[in-house]
Amino acid sequence: MSHQTVIVLDFGGQYNQLIARRVRECGVYCEVKPYTTPLDTLKAMEPIGIIFTGGPNSVYDPNSPQVDPVIFSWGVPILGICYGCQLIAHNLGGKVVAATDDSAREYGKTETYFNTDCKLFRGLPAQGITWMSHGDYMEKVPEGFALVAHSDACPNVAICDESRGFYGVQYHPEVNHTEHGTDMIRNFLYEVCGAKGDWTMGDYKNTAIAQIRKKVGDGKVLLALSGGVDSSVAAALVAEAVGSQLTCVFVDHGLMRLNEGDEVEAAFKKWDINLVRANAEELFLGKLAGVTEPERKRKIIGEEFIRVFEAEAKKIGQVDYLVQGTIYPDVIESGTGDAAVIKSHHNVGGLPDYVDFKEIIEPLRLLFKDEVRQLGRELGLPEYLVMRQPFPGPGLAIRIIGDITREKLDTLRLADFIFRDEIAKAQLEGTMNQYFAVLTNMRSVGVMGDGRTYDYTLALRSVTTTDFMTADWTHIPYDVLDRVSVRIVNEVPHVNRIVYDITSKPPATIEWE
To answer: How much of the chain, in percent, has pLDDT values that exceed 70?
Structure first.
């Protein structure tokens, strides 16, 4: 695929993926590369701009991550963020030292003042909040650089040498706390780098389809379809490319949410593909009977999934290609640094060794999750699949505390559906990132009608998060929680008490098991 490219050079910053996402959101393609990437490799990418990320080190430390100064002679614009800013200063004749007092250190939200004549801040307010996180200080700014932003505590919050296209900011424009941060990144891309904005999902879709057709030829393709966003979009993309040459194996373990298996099956009817739905509920429930320990549940389900997939794949015969729903965060976190590497089947975690195929196709490996969702819409997938919440592989088995029975599954399925239905009716889906019901193994006394009951307590869980590493519990309006509670105790058998989980992550996890 031929796009203008920006390189995000990673120096160990915690926001490296977020920087890349912001660039992509501005319509410009970028890749995250470790700072150790050879210069020849970077130059061969013909970048229109380079962004140095932040990092936890001090640039004056001899063991800190560095960059070959030759990169500054390429004539390519560079934006340094936090550590990246100090790296520019350190390499071009400035001096960075440890801050000796609180006036030079800055952490958190900081009132900042900008010179809007600078291209980085052109068209933006001259004053605003930025998110600072630095304990080092630019004691001397390199020759040829101007000071273009300051705070009450620090005179050199941002520097630039516009003649060479070099810019450095001590704060993090990529985080939401920085006002107009994305606009600053956009200015760097369009005002400085001359970006055309040629990164769109429509173009990506058409190019990817053509590449898949060329690669596959008349070969057979196999995909394990979970019904999750990544596997569904990968399936739709490959189906658009090769149609009936694709076989999708959907292992229905009976642990899905209400009507979910039917919805997944219906979503792929428009494509001329071979969709195998392996109804394995009896098998899974038999293996899980009496099992209460969550980790054992996970292992049983994972192993049986492979066994069912194995049995169905054997029926297909010779398979030339296997599709995986790998996405770009997986590639970045793997540390391979080479998106073109094709892994052999022996390295595919959890897949049976017997599957004999030439290559793995990973059509989403350049995309972030939000881009995968955009691609799904381009391909015509229904919104309920495109915006499907994260759902654990073991399904409802780890949302039932204790042993698993068909009766408990039916109870949880209906309660979970009511919860999600009321959230949808209240138009609150956009205010939370994951929400679900948990059937606890606690029973308590209740009164229904004029009689005593002794039934289960159901827990409701909803969180808001950006990265799922940390999460806050969602402040759902009381009237919505009231409607959910009333409906569940009236419509769902064996539940007489509803509780709402108000624990953030940490200390809790998002799922209960």
So the answer is: 91
Residue length of the chain = 513
- Helix, strand or coil, per DSSP, at residue 464: strand
Instruction: Give the Cα separation of 473 and 94 in Å (integer).
Output: 45
Secondary structure of residue 32 in the 3-state scheme: strand
280's tokens: 């394995």
Element (H, E) at 266: helix 260-267
Catalytic residue status for 174: yes
Mean pLDDT of the chain, nearest integer: 88
Active-site entry in 31, 174, 378, 422: 174
| Short-list 361, 372, 376, CA closest to 324 | 361
- pTM: predicted TM-score of the whole model, two decimal places: 0.72
176 pLDDT more than 90: no
The letter for the amino acid at 21 is: R
Strands (E), 260-349: 274-279, 321-323
The upper half-sphere exposure of residue 296, i.e. CA atoms within 13 Å in the direction of its Cβ, equals: 11
Q: What is the pLDDT of residue 333?
A: 62
Q: Residue 374 corresponds to which amino acid?
A: Q
Confidence at 17, pLDDT banded by 50, 70, 90: confident
| pLDDT tens figures, 278-333 | 999 999 999 999 999 999 999 999 889 888 888 888 888 888 898 988 888 777 76
Return the closest-CA partner of residue 59 out of 83, 36, 35: 83
Q: How many CB atoms lie within 10 A of CB 463?
A: 21
Phi, psi of 33 (to 5 degrees): -125, 140
- Would you say 513 and 399 are in contact if contact means Cβ atoms under 8 Å apart? yes
Conformational region of residue 344, where left means phi above 0, alpha means psi within -120 to 50, and beta covers everything else = beta
Statement: residue 350 has pLDDT above 50:
no
Of the residues 3, 90, 134, 172, only one is catalytic, namely 172
- Give the residue-averaged pLDDT of 3-27: 91
Instruction: Find the radius of gyration of the CA atoms of the chain.
Output: 26
* Pick from 333, 329, 366, 370: nearest CA to 25: 370
Catalytic residue among 3, 30, 31, 82: 82
Q: What six digits make up the tokens of 450? A: 């004029």
Residue 337: the pLDDT is 37
The answer to whether residue 82 is catalytic is yes
Hey, which bits of 234-348 come out as E strands? 246-252, 274-279, 321-323
- The CA-CA-CA angle for residues 33, 174, 145, to 5°, reads 80
pLDDT of residue 106: 57
How much is the pLDDT for 352?
A: 47
Dihedral pair phi/psi, residue 358, rounded to 5°? -75, -45
What's the token pair of residue 60?
């004056």
